[in-house]
């Protein structure tokens, strides 16, 4: 902990010395010529900008692959690919990855893709996805990965916004027992793009379905001859796709004949690396833009320290590469460190609820990284599916994406980690590029539910509504006073939106949009989005706090609390609870739950409404769409766009279950 404090202090006092030393591990074709760091965070002083290592030239793909291969580590395993079906598995070394990347890079170049062009990627969790993104980076183009669960409309919107004229996709994928017909969706998206004047140059398609095991009748809803198999496969069992020979190319056909050598394009450190659209729960999605040099230093360093990475570790991050967690901690962070990772195509509950634990045992995973929503889902099945496997290889368990309630934290620690691991609750955002508040394994004494302390280079402040800084203990807006290397540089095509969203409210600070509390020991507790805060009789309350209290009750599997306008209190609490299997929703339980919140937080926090929720309206990335819950709470059916929900039908079910008097 002392060492952390010293290093953190150094990183703030002399960023150039701190990050300059780290930069020495990487290959820069040309050295820094201008300022090491230059920035403006204050809208009143002009345009917001952040520039690290001006004038230096590098290539992130070279640093992820060539650097290790040249150092004699080509035969090391980069990925253990684990398919949706446990029978499907593959191993990929650094040397193989480099060759494949060069082949694809040459295909892209042959199609006229050059420096600065945007390439859209819409793929399942297969090794070709990693190859595709690195190939794009190798030639200095910019990737825009769209999560494979998005609709044709969403894919088209993102392609149009970035004017991406090349798409890389796959024929289809099994996710658990479900078929996702990616090419079919991509075809629809390309039609929409053309309709809006975008000229599509190429759609490069990975043939995946003929190489994998289809779900067996005994494995879930694919039972009785899987309907998808009837409509999407021919008599010989081959997956069928529509083919437009003016744009479609099979990956395996063009890649096999392409050269496995391709010089990297030496890029300016501040050239764009990728854009990634943040989920548009409000308004139009934003293309968060990250640049090469700073993102490289930051993802590599956070990966190394937050997971205490050492050679010999086997690391497994369950996030899809379509989200920022996958970009930074499936692809870039691990590869920059020369790590060996598990790349998992499937879902945690298929073909059984112990799938994660089975994979950990199989590959002797030492560092594991997942989301609280997954932890809570798996907790529902009890300890038995975990205890079946030997998880003694585990040393660090990470959490990301939302505040983790102490109950889930403790289950993760005690049941999954056998009380013999470090838990790292990593707070960050698509915008931050990498972890910004996180404990460091073995160094930081943890408190369940707290993301603890800022990472190197990050200076945290808490502000009140007027922008006054809250020193010491207190709760307020979570902001950062200065840039760390991995911070986003702009919203693609809309710098003004970047400035208004993140810098306008508090000049001089990057505003996360989250609230946080600092306790008397200086620990940071992220309480959730500010828009999830509510004010009950003048008391600021976070919905996460209430939810955490509710899920402490043994009958509750998951809970969501929202604000409902109240004539006397201003706002009151309306709670949705998903119960553990076999539990009835009765008056007695409702009373107990209200008491739980009341005793945990205070009488002012007593929920006014409690309703049963067979499920919660979650986006495909697992985020609860709270605006829908707020509508249900007030009995308003004007839900707005719910097409991004994983299961839109849950909304109507919830509406029908509204309690009497609500
Ligand atoms: O509200 C915070 C929450 O997730 C938001 C960022 O979401 P996204 O850009 O989709 O990135 C998710 C993966 C990094 C934050 O503003 N969040 C993320 N991690 C945590 C968290 N809230 C509390 N604790 C965390 N560890």
Automatic annotation (TrEMBL):
Keywords: ATP-binding, Ligase, Membrane, Nucleotide-binding, Transmembrane, Transmembrane helix
Gene3D superfamilies membership: 3.30.300.30, N-terminal domain of ligase-like (3.40.50.12780)
Domain AMP-binding enzyme C-terminal stretches: 545-623
GO aspect biological process, one term: acetyl-CoA biosynthetic process
Annotated EC: 6.2.1.1
Keyword Nucleotide-binding appears in the UniProt entry: yes
Compositionally biased tracts (Polar residues): 214-224
Domain AMP-dependent synthetase/ligase intervals: 71-490
Domain Acetyl-coenzyme A synthetase N-terminal span(s) in chain numbering: 4-64
Spans through the membrane: 129-150
GO molecular function terms attached to this record: acetate-CoA ligase activity; ATP binding
Top EC class of this enzyme: ligase
Region span, Disordered: 214-233
Superkingdom of the source species: Eukaryota
Family membership noted in the UniProt record: Belongs to the ATP-dependent AMP-binding enzyme family.
Protein name according to UniProt: acetate--CoA ligase
């Amino acid at each position: 902990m002392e060492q952390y404090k010293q290093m953190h202090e150094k990183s703030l006092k002399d960023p150039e010395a701190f990050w300059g030393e780290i930069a020495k591990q990487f290959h820069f074709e040309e050295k820094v010529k201008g300022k090491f760091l230059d920035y403006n965070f204050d809208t009143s002083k002009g345009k917001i900008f952040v520039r690290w290592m001006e004038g230096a030239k590098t290539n992130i793909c070279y640093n992820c692959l060539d650097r290790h291969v040249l150092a004699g580590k080509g035969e090391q395993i980069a990925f253990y690919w684990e398919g949706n079906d446990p029978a499907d598995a593959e191993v990929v070394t650094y040397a193989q990855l480099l060759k494949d990347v060069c082949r694809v890079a040459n295909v892209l170049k042959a199609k006229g893709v050059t420096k600065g062009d945007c390439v859209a990627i819409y793929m399942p969790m297969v090794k070709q996805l990693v190859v595709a993104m690195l190939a794009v980076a190798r030639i200095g183009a910019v990737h825009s990965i769209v999560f494979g669960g998005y609709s044709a409309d969403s894919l088209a919107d993102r392609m149009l916004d970035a004017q991406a004229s090349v798409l890389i996709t796959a024929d289809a994928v099994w996710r658990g027992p479900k078929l996702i017909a990616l090419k079919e969706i991509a075809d629809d998206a390309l039609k929409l793009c053309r309709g809006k004047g975008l000229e599509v140059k190429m759609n490069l398609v990975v043939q995946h379905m003929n190489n994998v095991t289809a779900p067996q009748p005994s494995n879930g809803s694919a039972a009785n001859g899987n309907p998808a198999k009837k409509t999407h496969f021919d008599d010989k069992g081959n997956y069928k796709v529509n083919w437009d020979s003016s744009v479609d190319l099979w990956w395996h056909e063009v890649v096999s004949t392409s050269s496995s050598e391709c010089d990297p394009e030496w890029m300016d450190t501040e050239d764009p690396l990728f854009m990634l659209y943040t989920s548009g729960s409000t308004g139009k999605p934003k293309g968060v833009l990250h640049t090469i040099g700073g993102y490289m230093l930051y993802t590599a360093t956070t990966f190394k320290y937050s997971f205490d990475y050492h050679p010999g570790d086997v690391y497994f991050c369950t996030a899809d590469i379509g989200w920022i967690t996958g970009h930074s901690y499936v692809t870039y962070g691990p590869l920059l460190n020369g790590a060996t990772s598990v790349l998992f195509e499937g879902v945690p509950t298929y073909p059984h609820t112990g799938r994660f634990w089975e994979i950990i045992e199989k590959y002797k995973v030492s560092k594991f990284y997942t989301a609280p929503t997954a932890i809570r889902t798996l907790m529902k099945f009890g300890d038995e599916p975990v205890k079946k496997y030997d998880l003694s290889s585990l040393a660090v368990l990470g959490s990301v994406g939302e505040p983790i309630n102490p109950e889930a934290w403790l289950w993760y620690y005690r049941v999954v980690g056998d009380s013999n691991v470090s838990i790292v609750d990593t707070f960050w955002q698509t915008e931050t590029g990498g972890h910004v508040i996180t404990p460091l394994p073995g160094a930081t004494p943890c408190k369940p539910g707290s993301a603890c302390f800022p990472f190197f280079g990050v200076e945290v402040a808490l502000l009140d509504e007027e922008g006054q800084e809250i020193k010491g203990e207190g709760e307020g807006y979570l902001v950062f006073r200065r840039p760390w290397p991995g911070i986003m540089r702009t919203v693609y095509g809309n710098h003004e939106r970047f400035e208004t969203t993140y810098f306008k409210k508090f000049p001089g600070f990057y505003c996360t949009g989250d609230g946080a509390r600092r306790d008397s020991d200086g620990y940071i507790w992220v309480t959730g989005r500010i828009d999830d805060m509510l004010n009950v009789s003048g008391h600021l309350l976070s919905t996460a706090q209430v939810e955490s209290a509710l899920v402490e009750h043994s009958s509750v599997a998951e809970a969501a609390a929202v604000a409902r306008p109240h004539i006397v209190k201003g706002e009151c609490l309306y709670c949705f609870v998903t119960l553990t299997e076999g539990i009835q929703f009765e008056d007695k339980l409702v009373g107990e739950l209200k008491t739980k919140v009341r005793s945990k937080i205070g009488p002012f926090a007593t929920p006014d409404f409690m309703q049963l929720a067979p499920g919660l309206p979650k986006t495909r990335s697992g985020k609860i769409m709270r605006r829908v819950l707020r509508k249900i709470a007030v009995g308003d059916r004007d839900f707005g766009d719910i097409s991004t929900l994983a299961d839109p039908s849950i909304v109507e079910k919830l509406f029908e279950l509204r309690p009497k008097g609500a």
